[in-house]
Amino acid sequence: MYFLYNIFVLVFGFLLIPISFFNKKIKLFLNGRKDTFQQLSVLKKTDRVVWFHCASLGEFEQGRPIIETFKIENPTFKIVLTFFSPSGYEIRQNYEFADVICYLPLDTKKNVNRFLDLVHPEISIFVKYEFWPNILKELKNRNINTLLVSAIFRKSQVFFKSNSFAKNFMRNSLKAFNHFFVQDINSEKLLNTIGFNNVTVSGDTRFDSVSNISKQDYTLDFMEKFLKNDTNFVLVAGSTWHQDEEIIINYINKYATTEQQFIIAPHNIKPTEIKKLKNKINKKTILYSEFHLHKQEEQVLILDTIGLLSKIYKHATIAYIGGGFGNGIHNILEAATYGVPILIGPKYDKFKEAVELIDKKGCFVINNEKDFIDNILFLKNPKLLKNTSEITLNYVNDNIGATKCILSYIKKNMTNFTT
């Protein structure tokens, strides 16, 4: 099976080359990997290294509290952070808590051996998923302590399919993990059914991540200037797509009163798309990039930048999280940690936190413009708004602690992790 897999990886890598001429993301994917081994060459054989791997930006946010807490407590260790996707690497390539940040090379035997020879990690930590057979096989061969954190397993995955050709091959890869830290009991039970009992239900480290962000003192001067004294309602719409924006813009154009303000952070911030979005709004609107022209009379602010959204949610009366009319919603916890009621589109089933917050009445599903208006009116009631805010805040606070659990395991079971 490894023979077939290795052929597949080589063919996959070869096919990406012509595709990269027409796809910017694939081009970044390939070009970024050209520098991986050069970036890793700064590591010395005497360095004590911990390797964190995140598929993309979302997984990075889950790994972030572990990385930062570990680095603060163990400053002499070198942190190597790898990404599979450009959407993670390109945004976090200058992350201050990691000593080396690079792309994970393609999973060929040659790449894996060269990578591990350079990194020589004392422990490797994979965040949520990413099961690369050659890497995991070699980690096991080298007796490198390997953890999977904030993991979620589903019955539909290949590991649990009785009639899957690759079932045993992929299950064998799981043997590389010394311990699994999973988000829920269902994941633990699934792993138990295939013989893995080295499992702890620790929860999702994203709760720790967003909680830490909310406690930091972020002062955004432009937000202080944008929000008017008589504003009694602020809708922050984060990571929106076209269908999300149609509903929000219709409300702004038809029903928004002067004491209501809106902040829209589109997922796509290409200048042409931003211009289209702004032109659809009939209220006075300003872009973040043009905020120096602010006249204290704008009702809508469009964020044509990245990196600010998680800090802006604290100013929200209500948050709308985009993506629910497409492939799935974006991160709702960034808003929930501030005790903000949340509105989302209908595609949320794969997001555990959304399902749970909907059940608790802290999050509401929007299928159309009428649903949006009805929920805005519902949350205008001060008592209902207060109750909903408490639900979202308590939900986050009740679920923090995964980072502490994981680091406690490392300290107890890997005694060489003392400085």
- The fold-level CATH name of the largest domain is Rossmann fold
Looking at this structure, what is the CATH superfamily of the largest domain? Answer: 3-Deoxy-D-manno-octulosonic-acid transferase, N-terminal domain
Query: How large is the share of residues in beta strands?
Result: 15-25%
- Look at the structure and give the mean pLDDT: 92
Count up the helices.
Answer: 19
The secondary-structure class comes to alpha/beta
**What CATH architecture of the largest domain would you give?**
3-Layer(aba) Sandwich
Ends: how far apart? 42 Å
| Helix amount | 40-55%
Provide the number of structural domains. Answer: 2
Widest sheet: strand ordering:
3-2-1-4-5-6-7
Measured on Cα atoms, how large is the radius of gyration? 23 Å
Query: Which spans of ≥5 residues are poorly predicted at pLDDT below 50?
Result: none
* DSSP strand tally: 14
Biggest pleated sheet: 7 strands, parallel
CATH first level of the largest domain? Alpha Beta
Shape: globular
